[in-house]
Structures are given as C-alpha cells and as structure tokens.
Amino acid sequence: MDIYQVKKIHGTPNLAPRFRVRVPGSKSITNRALLLAMLSDGGCGLSGALFSDDSRYLLQCIEKLGFETEADEKSARIFIRGLAGKIPKREARLYVGSAGTAARFLTALLGLKEGKWYLDASEQMRRRPMRPLLSSLQELGARVAYEGEEGHFPFTLFSERNKEKRISVDIGHSSQFLSALLIAAGSGGEELEIAVEGSHGMAYIDMTVRMMEQFGVPVILQDGVYRICGAGGYVHRDYEIEPDVSGACYFYAMAALLGVECMVEGVHFASLQGDVEFLRVLERMGCTLEETAEGIRLQGPFGGRLKAVRADLHACSDQAITLAAIAPFADGPVEITGIGHIRYQESDRIKAMAEQLGRIGIRCEEREDSVRIHPGAPMPGRIETYDDHRMAMGFSLVGLRAEGIEIEDPGCCRKTFENYFRVLDEAAAQLTGGGPAGRTVYSLPSQQ
Predict the structure, then answer these.
(1) 409 an active-site residue?
(2) Which of 153, 169, 392, 445 could form a disulfide with 121 if both were Cys (CB 3.0 to 4.6 A apart)?
(3) Predicted TM-score (pTM) of this structure
C-alpha cells in the first residue's frame, strides 16, 4: 500500500508569504456538462474538463450508449455529438465504478428512455443508496430487477415511454437524485413536475438548474415543485467548465493553517459551485478574502491562529472533512452541523473523521448529523482513508502543522483530483524554497 508522509512546514525559517496554484475542472460541472451535451441537438465542445475516475466512467458509458465522442486529456477538452435527446442503443450493459453522479444521472436518464439497461458499480458504490431514485422511476412505469440487495446496484432497468406528468423524490440521502431527474426530464420534450421531499444539497440543485438553462431548458420552482419546460430540448453549445472549487478549498485551508496568502486561479464568488461558501467560513476563522480578476485571494491569519466557529455546511458538505482537519488548530471547539447525509457517501464520513481524529489524539464528539472538535496538538499517526478521496485530501492538511502524519492510499484521489498530492508538493515548494509537502513510500504488508 502506498503511504504519503506529510512534511510539517509551519514555522520553516524560509517560509514565503504566498503561493499560487491551479486546480483541475469541477467534477460536478464536468459530469453535468457531459450529460447535457449528450442530450443536446448537436456537437458540443467542453473545455477545462476534469479527467478523473468519475468523469472517465461516465464518458465510457456515453460511448457504450452509441454516442460519438472525442477526448483530449492534455488540453482538457471533450467533444460529444448529441442526438436531440435520442439514445442510439436500446440495450446496454454499463459500469459506473464509484462515480455517484454517473450512477444517479445515467439511471434517471435511462429510466425515462425506452430500453433494457443493466447497470453495475464498484463495491463502494454498491453500498450507497439508490432506492429513492428507483422508486421515482417506478412511478413513471419503469421496472427494476435487482441482482442483489434491493435499492442498490447491480440491477436491470426496463423502461417504457413515460406517461406520467408528476412524480416525487426524496433527497434526504442525496441531492443527486433530484439533479438526475431534472436533467433527464429536460430531454423528454414534454413537461414534467417533480415534487421534492428534503432540502439538503440545494446548492447542487441550483447548479443543475442553472446549467440546464445554459443549455436551453428552463426550470420553474414553485411551492417545492420543479416544473421542467423542455419542449425544445437541450441546445448544443461550446461550454467552459469552471475550476473545481471543492479542490481549491484544500489550498485555501492550507493558507489559513500556515498564515500565508493563497491564490487559486479562476475561482470566483460568482461560481456555480456551492463550495465557494466555505471561504466565508475561513473568513470567520480569521482569514481575509479579496476578489481579483485572476481569482480569489485568501490571506491566512497571522501565525495560523484560527478562530473557533460553528458552521452549518449543508450547502458545502464536501468541505466538512476539510474543516475537521484544521479544527484542532483553532482557539476553541469547532462545531460542524447540517452534515447528516455525508454518512451515505463514499464512506460514513462523520464516523470516519471522528475515528481518524481520535487516532491522532484529537477529541471529537460524534452526533447523528454533526461533530464537535476540540483544539489540541495532533500526535503522529497514520490516517485511514476508506478509499475516500475527501479523507485523503482533507487529512493531509493536518500534517502541514503536526509531525508524523501519514496518509494511507493517496491514490484514491484519482476519483476526482488525481494529481492532488503533486499540486500540494508544488504549493509547499513555493513556500519553502523547493521542499515538497511530503513523499510517497511503499508500505510492506508486515507494516500495515
């Protein structure tokens, strides 16, 4: 197993006051754009696209459905020729890996198209819930034949032409269920109403709606019901994908910890991505923010002296682990609320962050939908990542101010940000005059 040994850099004599990084394209925007392009009425060029496990699985599935695609990873460009909402094949076997967006988006789309579809996923994705989305598709007349546990992958979806005009969906476990149905419904050429139960993850729903409108399909929200007016269908266009704000937040948090300045190129407050709100949390912890033409500049507090906060992260829950990682260095307890749904993501993230903080000697009170983390000096320790990219990236921050922090399986970041540790090393090199943030070593089985 690969182990990334983080190198403490806080207080280094030659510490520079600033660093600048570029992050890859947004996973959330890339995967939505892939689907919208596929459903459009012609050729779409996507620039700034993210190439990661998640986006590659979705692109492979699009190709298996019979669409013409071209991908150039070096230039971060993807071309897809849409067929005005039509699917070339009526039957296919698709594998979505651990990609939650691909899993939910494709299931919803194929559930609204006539055909027979077999869908499978990784062991990790097989554990994640699908029942709310499949129940909504069954309201529309689709049939589901499960190969294993009901409400989970793998399954075969038998779809017929939808005759219903109104359905409901429960987004208590994932807002992706609603995003999936909205995008899929926009390709049908008919009006559909979707009533929603639950309210978490609405920033991602807003992103979905705004992108649907950018591709020509308006959505109306009234009294908790979404109405899709997709008579004209999606319109082809060239589309520029924003840098990944979720990935950028690790570097802004790094600057906060070290009391230095960070610029992430191309990140702006007008972003489609809800995670930009995490910068406001860092601001409350003592950071200063400045919007520039090149991107948002963040200055960490002097000496990395962070203030304690109580933060509701329902709108940017991917940053719960990021905040948990820097919380031990605050001047009082940090409470993170509104995150109950992250128990159903790549790992039970509330349990995982509590366990790993405990492993390095930090007191963390775990609740059903929140955590309270007490300040302290982290002890040396090896962080288990549970094959969860957010755990690997988030907990790497601890080692920037604490000795002896190691990250298991750093390669799990390939899900969304496969060169994260290289970019982290580059940022550290700017601060320390060439020294990396850490190194990867091989751990023999006897050492595990």
Answers:
(1) no
(2) 153
(3) 0.90
